[in-house]
Task: inverse folding
């Protein structure tokens, strides 16, 4: 059940997208998201959709795996689409009770849904193809200018990367604890909402205990290696732009320009 | 009364590119009252195998019969199986969650639907069996020492009154004293209650002394299923699987290789001493 959560996890294969500089991927994702909100017609969607599909193919990500990662947003997606569908004023097509479906509503629900899907796809491609380490260095470098305003950029980036790194570990831990409690006769599936919420306590308490224990151990291990934050810290593998990054930026600019000028 | 596994197969990542066989055609019969050692290298499939025994993992093919009933039958009560086949996971102390020791041990029996009095009788009994003194009953389980925590966790399973008790690496991470205590505790429970004990381990030392029967699993297959003495006679093969024979057996083997008149199949220090003294006397 929980093992199916793939969003945000690095998928280790060799591809040109994997080799791109993390800064390119980070900024590229932002540029792509901006581009998503520029188009208003079907052709614009086709361009963005074609782009994202070819990136997935280039990154050698299995489509099934990528789609599985979309599962957590299905609820949000349906919620948004239904509200857009029912509450947009305009040319009425059909009516039911107090709701009315309008032409504009269908249009807006459809595009909202597609945008959200592509937004999540775009940003998850970044995490699928970038190791947490690289992601951290990328973010640190992109947001580096904030240091002027005394924002602890390095520390924040480190926190994000540790959080990402710990998702699969905690997931596995949850699985283990669930099984251990099931072996003691725990039942998570039957009963009303209150009973089910109560059934979670035997999972959540050990999970929190273990999360804190792991956090403590990690902090100690970092201290033992003289970690003291970002000041004066150098990198073993400094980030370097290559030709392929230039190509990537050019393609992205092409996409943005395309989205602006396509009717 | 027995647990029978018939041609069990199980795959990891079924249906994906990562599909690998975790268990291959495992057939086993576990009669009542045995003390079984299950050994295998890390990743050999031993943890996967024991989770089949109480229905936490469903085999991709093959059947399991508990006391003559097919556990994959629609009418079979899985909760009943989980109660009768008690499974103590690795580092069981990580599953403790209640505010007090006694409440935590009561979790299992309460889930079984027992009334308060019966559940408490079982809980007190099992805490006594694992050697937790009464003044600790109302302490928080998180305040106990590592060895105590583990014993409380084992009591939590014992309190369900299982017919088969399976323990996954119960001595992992304990000091020699704690290890000795846990193993002796298992032996005592086995003898007092007559329940079947399956001790999973990668350490030969752990199982050599207590197990009557040894099952060696490697790469998802059963390689040996015999008396410990006969299994340890295959020292070379075991080494290839990344397993060691007990240090005593190793030492006696080397002494015998050098031409000393000793029994090379000794499992414990006591036996080794006996054999060396006897060898001397014969001279």
Result:
């Amino acid at each position: 059940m929980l093992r199916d959560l793939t969003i945000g996890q690095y998928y280790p294969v060799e591809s040109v997208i994997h080799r791109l500089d993390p800064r390119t991927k980070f900024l590229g994702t932002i540029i792509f998201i901006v581009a998503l909100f520029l188009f208003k017609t079907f052709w614009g969607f086709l361009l963005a959709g074609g782009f994202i599909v070819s990136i997935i193919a280039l990154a050698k990500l299995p489509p099934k795996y990528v789609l599985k990662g979309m599962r957590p947003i299905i609820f949000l997606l349906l919620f948004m689409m239904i509200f857009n569908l029912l509450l947009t004023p305009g040319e009425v097509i059909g009516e039911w009770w107090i709701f009315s479906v309008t032409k504009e509503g269908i249009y807006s629900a459809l595009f909202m849904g597609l945008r959200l899907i592509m937004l999540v796809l775009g940003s998850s491609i970044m995490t699928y193809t970038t190791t947490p380490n690289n992601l951290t260095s990328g973010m640190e470098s992109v947001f580096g200018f904030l240091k002027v305003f005394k924002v602890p950029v390095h520390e924040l980036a480190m926190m994000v990367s540790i959080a990402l790194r710990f998702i699969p570990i905690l997931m596995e831990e949850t699985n283990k604890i669930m099984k251990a409690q099931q072996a003691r006769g725990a039942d998570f599936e039957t009963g009303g909402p209150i009973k089910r919420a109560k059934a979670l306590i035997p999972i959540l308490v050990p999970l929190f205990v273990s999360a804190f224990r792991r956090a403590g151990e990690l902090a100690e291990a970092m201290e033992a290696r003289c970690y003291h934050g970002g000041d004066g810290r150098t990198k073993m593998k400094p980030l370097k732009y290559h030709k392929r990054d230039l190509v990537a930026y050019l393609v992205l600019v092409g996409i943005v320009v395309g989205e602006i000028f396509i009717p | 009364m027995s647990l029978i596994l018939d041609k069990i197969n199980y795959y990891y990542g079924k249906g994906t590119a990562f599909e690998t066989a975790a268990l291959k055609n495992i057939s086993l019969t576990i009669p009542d009252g045995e003390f079984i050692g299950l050994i295998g290298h890390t990743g050999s499939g031993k943890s996967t195998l024991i989770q089949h025994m109480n229905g936490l993992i469903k085999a991709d093919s093959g059947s399991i019969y508990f006391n003559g009933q097919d556990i994959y039958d629609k009418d079979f009560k899985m909760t009943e199986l989980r109660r009768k086949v008690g499974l103590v996971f690795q580092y069981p102390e990580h599953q403790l969650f209640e505010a007090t020791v006694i409440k935590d041990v009561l979790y299992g029996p309460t889930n079984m639907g027992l009334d308060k009095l019966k559940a408490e009788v079982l809980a007190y009994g099992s805490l006594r069996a694992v050697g937790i003194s009464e003044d600790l009953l109302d302490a928080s389980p998180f305040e106990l020492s590592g060895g105590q925590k583990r014993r409380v966790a084992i009591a939590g399973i014992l309190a369900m009154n299982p017919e088969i008790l399976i323990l996954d690496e119960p001595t992992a991470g304990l000091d020699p004293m704690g290890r000795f205590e846990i193993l002796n505790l298992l032996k005592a429970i086995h003898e007092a209650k007559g329940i079947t004990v399956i001790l999973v381990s990668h350490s030969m030392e752990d199982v050599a002394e207590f197990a009557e029967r040894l099952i060696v699993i490697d790469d998802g297959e059963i390689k040996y299923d015999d008396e410990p003495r006969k299994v340890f006679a295959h020292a070379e093969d075991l080494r290839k699987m990344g397993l060691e024979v007990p240090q005593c057996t190793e030492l006696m083997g080397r002494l015998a290789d050098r031409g000393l008149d000793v029994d090379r199949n000794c499992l414990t220090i006591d036996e080794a001493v006996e054999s060396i003294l006897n060898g001397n006397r014969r001279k």
User: Anything to note?
Assistant: Chain A has a mean pLDDT of 85. Chain A touches chain B at residues 62, 176-177, 179-187, 201-202, 205-206, 209-210 (CB under 8 Å). Residues 1-130+240-263 of chain A form one domain. Residues 153-183 of chain A form the longest helix (31 residues).
